[in-house]
Write a structure and sequence with these properties.
By secondary structure, the chain is mainly β. The protein is built from one helix and 17 strands. The protein has a four-stranded antiparallel beta sheet, with no helix packed on it. It has a four-stranded antiparallel beta sheet with strand order 7-4-5-10, with no helix packed on it. The protein has a four-stranded antiparallel beta sheet with strand order 11-8-9-14, with no helix packed on it. Strand 16 and strand 17 (225-228) form a beta hairpin. The chain is globular. 35% of the residues are buried.
Length: 242
């Protein structure tokens, strides 16, 4: 946030939260303008659920939620009415099965930005936001990546542009950096391309947007990053698309 003492600012911005079970809640930023040293209640989380993310929005943002099963939903922020801090929220997306869960949420204001998804076995894909049609809140969503035994479940959903860099961190502790500009835009329902080679039972732990590097880094065969100066160079070792 910029300044929670600026009355115009806090009354024109909102906080949207989502839980792993697909519940979303929107609250005016003004509700958080009088913080206490021991914190204040932000959301009532239902039994068996966990708060996943919170995003600052402008009141006319587009919200996207991604599921581990490979589905994603896009709806206008206006479909979620503002609630008090103690409310538990409303359904944002319907889970595909009992073991499914939300893995990420983005609040998009730049309609020209792209959506990046990454699976736990190192596959990823960059797609146009327009590929995800706007629907009502609470639906099942549409396929954002073809989840197979080869790809593993979805682990990250980010909105990106050519000006962004990525940091991908494995559960084994290895991290690599790459530039988003090196990932071509692909269709929404494809499997994607391999972003990193994983050894054994290793998998992706987290993906974060970072400052773009002039000389990007890609994964070498031993998992340690190596340099690639040509921005047209493919950052994958297996770029087969299904």
């Amino acid at each position: 946030t910029q300044d929670i003492k600026d009355e115009e600012y806090i009354n024109s911005h909102f906080v949207i939260m989502c839980t792993k079970k697909g519940v979303v809640k929107k609250t005016s930023l003004e509700q958080y303008s009088r913080p206490r040293s021991n914190g204040i209640n932000a959301i009532t989380v239902r039994d068996g659920d966990t708060l996943l993310e919170a995003k600052l929005t402008t009141g006319d943002s587009h919200v996207m939620l991604g599921l581990k099963s490979g589905k994603a939903i896009r709806f206008d922020e206006s479909k979620t009415r503002p609630m008090g801090r103690n409310a538990s929220g409303v359904r944002g997306i319907r889970l595909s099965h009992v073991d499914d869960e939300v893995i990420g949420m983005v609040a998009v204001n730049d309609m020209d930005s792209n959506i990046l998804v990454v699976s736990e076995k190192g596959y990823g894909k960059r797609s146009s936001l327009d590929d995800y049609r706007e629907t009502n809140r609470g639906g099942k969503g549409v396929k954002t990546i073809s989840v197979t035994e080869k790809t593993g479940g979805l682990v990250a959903l980010k909105n990106v542009s050519d000006e962004d860099g990525l940091m991908i961190i494995n559960k084994s502790g290895v991290a690599i950096r790459m530039n988003v500009a090196n990932l071509r835009v692909m269709g929404r329902a494809t499997q994607g391309v391999r972003l990193i080679n994983l050894k054994g039972n290793d998998s992706i732990a987290a993906v974060a947007k970072v400052v773009k590097e002039e000389e990007e880094e890609i994964a070498s065969e031993d998992g340690i990053a190596s340099e690639a100066q040509d921005t047209d160079t493919t950052v994958v070792n297996d770029d087969s698309e299904e």
